[in-house]
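Q: Here's a chain of 244 amino acids. Please give me its 3D structure as tokens.
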Amino acid sequence: MSSPRSRSRKLQSRAFYALAAVTAATFVFEIFFIFLKAPVEVRMGIVQKIFYFHVPSAYAMYLGATACLVGSITYLTRPSDWSDAVALAGAEAACVFGFIVLTTGPLWGAKAWGTFWTWDPRLTTELLSVLIYVSYLVLRAFAGDGDGERRFAAALGVLGAANLPIIHFSVQKWGGQHPMVITGRGGGLQHPDMKLALSLGFLAFTLLAVLLVWSRARLEMVRSRLRRAEEDAIDLGLDTRAEA
């Protein structure tokens, strides 16, 4: 008869694979809907379809940053391998989706503004956030895995999240060229299929963000258990030699 822990792990694995299947199906449907159903925007043409990936990926970056923030605060207050794993997974997800934002944005900007990059307030603060999470990952990769290094990285995780409201409100506060399409000031989404395509994009990228954070946290927990087992084995070997 299997133990409760074994049954729990099997249930988690089934839920994980179910989420992966739903995420893949949602992305396939979203891509078909964007390019075969949603109409082509009159002024920007087919380049406007980048919008359905650009905005949801920015939202997914916020989700990864939120996971990093929650894990970081939890680690600073009550250190554990799980909270550290969630913080690390969130930082990696924030970097992945942040790079998608910084790739799709210039492709859209080249058509809308005539240049791939401008030091617009939102673009600049977005780049700053991505660099903070890159710094987090570099610190975790090269500074060791002790409690001090984890706490310093957790502080970076909190700092990265503190910049997110600045990104969101930078257009209202400082202006700039970045449009506000969803609110209508940037042209809006006039056709219902455009709004549905964007909604599907939000759903797909939300599922992907949850999937990436979950899978990366699970992997980090396995690595932590393996590391602790190796440390116990080394201690046991030293104790055995000392007794001999």
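Q: Can you summarize the key feature?
A: The longest helix spans residues 192-243.
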